Amino acid sequence: MIAGFTALCVAELVAAAVRPEAGPVSAVGGAVIDRTPPAVKDFAVRNFGTDDKLVLQLGILVLLALFAMAVGILALRHRRTGAAAVLVFGAVGAVSAAGRPEGRPGDALPSAVGALVAAGVLYLLAGRLVPAAVPSPAAGGTGGGEPDSGVRDNTVQGAFDRRGFVIAATAAAAASAGAGVLGRGLQTSQLAGAAASREDITLPPPASPTRPIPSGAGPDIRGLSSFVTPNKDFYRVDTALVVPRVDADRWRLRIHGKGVTRPVTLSFQDLLKRELVERDITLTCVSNQVGGPYVGTARWIGVRLATLLSEAGVRPPSKGGPADQVVARSVDGMTIGTPVEEVMDGRDALLAVGMNGEPLPFDHGFPVRMVVPGLYGYVSACKWIQDVELTTFDAYDAYWVKRDWSRRAPVKTQSRIDTPRPFAAPRAGTVPVAGVAWAQHRGIARVEVRVDGGEWHTARLAAEAGRDTWRQWVWEWPATTGHHTLQVRATDRTGATQTDKRVGTVPDGATGWHSVVVDVP
After folding, report:
1. C-beta atoms surrounding 26 within 10 Å
2. CA distance 250 to 190
3. CA dist., res. 118 & res. 88, Å (int)
4. Which of 8, 190, 350, 394 could bond to 302 as cystine, CB 3.0-4.6 Å?
5. Could you report how far apart the first and last alpha carbons of the chain are, in Å?
């Protein structure tokens, strides 16, 4: 256990000289995420929510502890074999770090150096636990006769060096802890530059401000989601175990690839000097189950991506352009493929720099991220973006497409009951049944609610803020005593109504009607 602790702490110190993402827990965790089947990932998101990464990291630490104990037992009998096992485990971390999509050769160093030092510590401490050999009393006759002529071992096994072991173990643990604290401190100081660059940003007023949210867009109903989701409550679903901390002053974006006649490289200040657009847009994660929480609305400010692509010489396929896919690359290696046609069809596809009146939070993509209304996040919402390449869907599969998700994924028309909550016990009488519905870039035309499989009742829609945002609704239910099931469905402005067919999130989003069971006493 002490040797395992040493490995982690030394690796933390070395990672400070490389980069935080190269630490062994993050590297192995990232490799696990990369190789996780979609069904397992969907299970993790559904059951652990945004804590799925914490659960994964704790699981890695538990497995490391079990491995450390097993190797420790092995080292008591075979010191060299035990130390070699530590080196093998370190090699796994090194290969995981360097082999990730964003991996660099230097990323292998933290795991390798940590394992090397841990192997030495294990070898040293295991040696202290070997009982010392001490001479035995000379064996002789009792009656003055000749001594026994047979060959005998003249040593016996004594007690192990308890004091020496305690001193060595304490020293190793203390030195390791010091290395870990120093490494974490160095990483924190390095990240301070990114935090300072964010604090120094003052977002310019948008050249194209969004219209004010209509006064009736957010009914004052207890339990109903607020129309605008605060940054701290906005869902986060990504693969980053370590949230990238990018210094805005050093950030650059490159636009290049098929059909690009004028490659572009932009700094953060270049973006701020351009015409900024402000829009209210609802984002939805494809991992959102029917009635799930991974949907939210924010006020985004940024630059139109279509404008930048046009300046680079890009034409959509409908106008003869050779590229049909925009591949956005994040600083953490994530790749997201978005249809060129949708980016350039007139919708407010943005390179966002602000969220709800402030620079993007680090968790949500600072300094720059993509926002494309009407598409699920895994095909549109690249966070921490640093590269935009024009290519074709036939030539390249982005990260999630390689893992059996669809290449194209428009948001499906969905609705959710926010209140009453499942298994609530409202009193008989008039009970407001309220929630949200969304069909980004199409808009919501109607929401209906029914009780116990009966006739559908049309809910009252709140004022519409725009077709790229969700819409709130309420139906006054004359509740009667008993056990009841409430269901909701929505119809978008194309006339399409939600299907009742229950389908999971893979490969392009869940379908079905959200239902809530209540008991009216």
Report:
1. 26
2. 13
3. 12
4. 350
5. 56
